[in-house]
Amino acid sequence: MTNPRILGTGIAEGLLLKPVTYPWALDLYNQAVANTWFPHEVQLGEDLADFARLTDEERHAVTHLMSYFNPNELLVNKALAFGVYPYVNAAECHLYLAKQMWEEANHCMAFEYVLETFPIDRKAAYASHITVPSMAAKEEFEVKFIRRMTEQTLDINTVEGKRDFVRNLVAYNVILEGIWFYSGFMVALSFRQRNLLRNFASLIDWIVRDESLHLNFGINLILTVLEENPEVASDEFAEEIRSMVLDAVEMEEAYNRDLLPNGILGLNADYINQYVKYLADRRLEELGFEPEYGVTNPAKWMATANDTLQLVNFFESINTSYEVDARSSH
């Protein structure tokens, strides 16, 4: 058994980067730095003519996505700042988490840029995450886990404290970022499949590229905690984690019915929800579970963005790739 190292709250620990204990974390940090981008590098204004041609249903879908993504990028930052960073000892993990927090802020500004550029009712978009029950339910699900980390005393040295840490990671990295965000990305990118909103899609490509690393980091962190603390992974806890993912799928199904109540060209709620189930199966497998739904991927054009094991290859080949430092590419 490996001595527990990655978890802890010692301020004096984790002050030296070398020797690196978790090379995967430093590698993800280097990839994240190479991926640095800024929203206004995309000429969103060029999509205004496309936006004017959208149907009311399509405009509703874009507005709904903005309403959901905007506050939730900031919610992820709270989960990282209060629920992950204080309980991790390794310097390389702190480096990555600092970059991830900046990326979430950058995503928030990217979605603000969309709201500033497209003729979207910002007030209505902001209100939806409170007034639309399916959207509010998803948010409350997430808030419940971060509240446990911030408003009550969490002892990371206990088995239950470690389980709370893992619950929070599953809620944010696996469910929010790895399933719910990807579902929205697929809808956003579907417009490009019809040669619409191409610059908006480029912005989403860059966000997906960041989120793929967030997902990779989160799953590595979960698996490392479980490997170093085998007493955490009881049968009952495993079933609880699996149930969290299945509950999240049900919440997303309701949300997608509100997102696309009548469907748009080439896309309806059933199509998105099959994709959600496909994603959920991939995340379950990455966590070491058997898949639940056994469905095929209806959005074959999103195939290479789904699996963390394929992500690095995918993002090296994508033609919208953006790297600040080309020497960092693999």
Automatic annotation (TrEMBL):
Binding note for cofactor: Binds 2 iron ions per subunit.
GO MF, one example: metal ion binding
A Pfam family recorded for this sequence: Ribonuc_red_sm
Job of this protein: Provides the precursors necessary for DNA synthesis. Catalyzes the biosynthesis of deoxyribonucleotides from the corresponding ribonucleotides.
Family per record: Belongs to the ribonucleoside diphosphate reductase small chain family.
Cofactor(s) it depends on: Fe cation
Superkingdom of the organism of origin: Bacteria
Quaternary structure annotation from Swiss-Prot or TrEMBL: Tetramer of two alpha and two beta subunits.
EC number per UniProt: 1.17.4.1
UniProt protein name: Ribonucleoside-diphosphate reductase subunit beta
Catalytic activity: a 2'-deoxyribonucleoside 5'-diphosphate + [thioredoxin]-disulfide + H2O = a ribonucleoside 5'-diphosphate + [thioredoxin]-dithiol
Amino acids binding Fe cation 2: E104, E177, E211, H214
Record bears the keyword Metal-binding: yes
Main enzyme class: oxidoreductase
Stretches that traverse the bilayer: 169-191
Record flagged with keyword Zinc: no
PANTHER family in UniProt: RIBONUCLEOSIDE-DIPHOSPHATE REDUCTASE SMALL CHAIN, RIBONUCLEOSIDE-DIPHOSPHATE REDUCTASE SUBUNIT M2
Keywords for the protein's UniProt record, in alphabetical order: Deoxyribonucleotide synthesis, Iron, Membrane, Metal-binding, Oxidoreductase, Transmembrane, Transmembrane helix
Gene3D superfamilies: Ribonucleotide Reductase, subunit A
CDD domains according to UniProt: RNRR2
